[in-house]
Amino acid sequence: MALFSKQNKEVFTNPLNLDHPILGQVLGICSALAVTSQLKPAIVMGLAVTVITAFANVIISIIRNTIPNRIRIVVQLVVVAALVTIVSQILKAFAYDVSVQLSVYVGLIITNCILMGRLEAFAMQNKPWPSFLDGVGNGLGYAMILVIVGAVRELLGRGTLLGFQIIPDACYDFGYVNNGMMTMPAMALILVGCVIWVHRAYFYKEK
Amino acid sequence: MKLNTNSNAYIIIYSAILVVIVAFLLAFVYQALKPMQDANVALDTKKQVLYSLNIRNLDGAEAEAKYAEIINDTMDMMGQKILMAEINEEPIMIYEMKGMGLWGGISGFMSVRFDLEKGGFSVYGAYFNHESETAGLGAEIKDSQEWQEKFIGKRIFDDETKHVVLSVVKKVEDPECQVDCVTGATLTSNGVDEMIKRTFGLWTGEYDIDMDEGELEMLMLKMALGKDSVSDAELQRMIKVKKVKEE
Fold it and tell me: B152 is in which domain, residue-wise?
């Protein structure tokens, strides 16, 4: 089977549109609300989830035939927890500032529904390579929303992007004020809602 | 032969092997990355000290060099960590503070200068940190540079009563020594207030010093000997002398 056969392409692109983990399945919302008050942690969180989903998918897919059916959820959790711990340690060693900002939410990736959902629904039945693509696709789908919401919240809430001033000082002189509401988690929920609405209204095509 | 993956023996052996493999892997990663993580934490603490001296926007090696340049001594008095710095030939003391916020611990550094006009000491700069305060509210004590800068120049002790007057309040009545609290974060602000009072209260007797008689004598001994630390032998000798006196 070719590496990028039609079937594999679908596995990769479906989660970016039709089966989008957040927009289509509305999974993994909790962490999406928590880490998106600025763009940088949102990007790192998106990358972390992508890496973890992809590798957890591959590992589970490789050992899928040996996993005893009765403890399969436990096995999946152990694999995910190990990966998450490794990622969190790496962040602490190489991106300390970001790991401080993400604080508990890196650890909480373990309970991210996207991960368990993909492991149970996809990796348990499929070969490693399609599982890897599925993991990357879902992770990127998740990261996409995080980046959109993070960018809007940081721009309107702080007037910056990735810490760089975007809204010129002149605007502040004219009485423009940063919207403090944007830094609150509640606004993330509303923004995610708006994104879901736009997606459903304009991009979503029935299967 | 096909294994029966649902037999009890298989499940037990499978999970045991899995857990051992994962444990080894995690232990290895932890050991391999520990030195880098420790270095990061140490550097972060140094940066926080520099923030409290109003030196911001320094990265990695720059911060390290600056820290080495201006900090010339570290003291431990009654469990209170004090750093001595020199900026533009002016001696500055940096106090490490620890306290309680709303959801978890808060900490910070406050640098203090001699200021005879303001009851002996005034604030040179401040930096606060927190573990888990609410983003946008309590977390502002760390995120808002503006708020931290409000402390600069405030008087710490009262001239006459010698009590700590520097405080975080809802309504500022005396701008010389009071700082506006963070809106929407009363409990965190109260935590900062308490932390400051306790740290500096150590010198005024307002707050009970959390140490028993033995520790106090230990401290006096340290001061008498002019040493930072006292050996066990010296301590034992002192206790003996004390006991003899009592008898």
Answer: 47-201
